[in-house]
Amino acid sequence: MAAPTEADLQAAASLLEEALVGQDWTLVTAESSTAGLIGHAITMVPGASRYYLGGVIAYSNLAKEVELGVPAEIIATHGAVSPEVAAAMAEGVRSRFDADLGLSVTGIAGPDGGGADKPTGLHYVAVCRRGHPARVERHVFPHDRDGNKAAAALAALTLAKRELDAG
């Protein structure tokens, strides 16, 4: 399986755009391991300012706590790469921007940093819709650093689109 290309990301962002505009919803992002790649993909689509309010690159634990309101206890207990942190990131960014949908990703892009419990390529993506708890997915990607980042960004965009389709 090849890593997603920029064209793949743009195509996924276009599908998400159609769904967001169709429902008149707003979106915000909180990115750790992808470091802004999701926001980049979204803004490759002309007219993104109609629905994309912005994003936070929360690469460090401190940024996750200060900018997104992720409790330090959650990070200390579960680690920065965990479903709990991904959920808190999505909920925090959605709430802080007062958006309809919050989207987040945290992971280990590589080439190092992984271990037995949390391998290189592990990512958690989460989406939080206003009035609902976050939904989190776990992925382990087999690519190099750039490929893992692209795969995580694509997984997040796809998750957000599925959330919109679910109504």
Describe this structure as you would to a colleague.
With 167 residues, the chain is of the alpha/beta class. The protein has a single domain (6-166), classed as Maf protein (Alpha-Beta Complex). It is 46% helix and 19% strand. The chain contains six helices and five strands. The protein has helices at residues 6-23, 37-43, 61-68, 72-78, 83-97, 145-166, and strands spanning 27-31, 52-57, 101-107, 122-129, 135-140. Strands 2-1-3-4-5 form a five-stranded mixed β-sheet, sandwiched between helices. Helix 1 packs across helix 2 (37-43) and helix 1 packs parallel to helix 6. It is globular. It starts with 5 loop residues before the first helix and ends with a helix. The mean pLDDT is 96.
Main β sheet profile: 5 strands, mixed
Please write the string of helix (H) and strand (E) elements: HEHEHHHEEEH
CATH superfamily (homologous) name: CinA-like
Corresponding CATH architecture: Alpha-Beta Complex
Question: How many beta-strand segments?
Answer: 5
Helix-strand makeup class? alpha/beta
Q: In CATH, what is the class? A: Alpha Beta
CATH topology: Maf protein
> How far apart lie the N and C ends?
31 Å
- Amount of beta strand: 15-25%
Number of helices: 6
Helix content: 40-55%
The 3D shape can be described as: globular
Q: What strand line-up does the widest sheet have?
A: 2-1-3-4-5
Which spans have pLDDT < 50 for at least 5 consecutive residues? none
Topology:
Blueprint lengths: L5 H18 L3 E5 L5 H7 L8 E6 L3 H8 L3 H7 L4 H15 L3 E7 L14 E8 L5 E6 L4 H22 L1
Parallel strand pairs: 1-2, 1-3
Antiparallel strand pairs: 3-4, 4-5
Helix pairs in contact: 1-2, 1-6
